[in-house]
Amino acid sequence: MTDYFKLLNSPYFSIGSFLFFQQLGKFIKLDNYVSSLRLLYLGVQVTIVALSYLLIYKIRQKNDQTVLKYVEPASQSWDGTETADQLINTTVMDYDIAEVHKTVKQSAMGILLITFLHFKFGYVQPLLVQSILGFKTFLMTKEVRIHYWGSPTTGDLKRPFRLEAPFGMVNEKKQPKTDKGSIKKAEKAIKAE
């Protein structure tokens, strides 16, 4: 059976659909529909943010207080120094809400970027592309798949979520650690302080 979530989340699908809508935008002569595209883009982004907060409401209603304990790997700051591994002790509800907030922040950064490109350089195609792909991106997030689509929390939907990057180029050391050895090591480091 085809896994539609994997297909739609594939970087190849994203690149292909982006190129398709870019060419469609050139074919239609979008410059004639600038005000309509602005309204479409604004409406889509407001809808996505509203759906995100509706998702947070749904997560709070489920009120899953299952304890989630994992180790956030060390991160490197801008000056090259590395922070220590950090033990995270939270609940499933709080973790999911934090992940939705991250998604909203990423959406806000995307909105700022598209708005800058449109008003500063006059690009119209990103308004069309992000109006369509914005929904696809939102509907394929892990939280939506779990709470709206009812997907089981196994595999890539197991909490804490693995970091993802295009073409799978994330270093394994940067992934959250859930094994007992890493958790005990982080707990000992906290007690030693």
From TrEMBL:
Keywords carried by this UniProt record: Membrane, Transmembrane, Transmembrane helix
Protein source organism: Mucor saturninus
Protein name per its UniProtKB record: Inorganic phosphate transporter Pho88
Cellular-component GO terms for this entry: endoplasmic reticulum; mitochondrion
GO biological process: protein targeting to ER
Keyword Zinc: no
Residue stretches spanning the membrane: 39-56
Annotated InterPro entries: SND3_fun (IPR012098)
PANTHER family linked to this entry: SRP-INDEPENDENT TARGETING PROTEIN 3 (PTHR28112:SF1)
Positions of region (Disordered): 171-193
Domain of life: Eukaryota
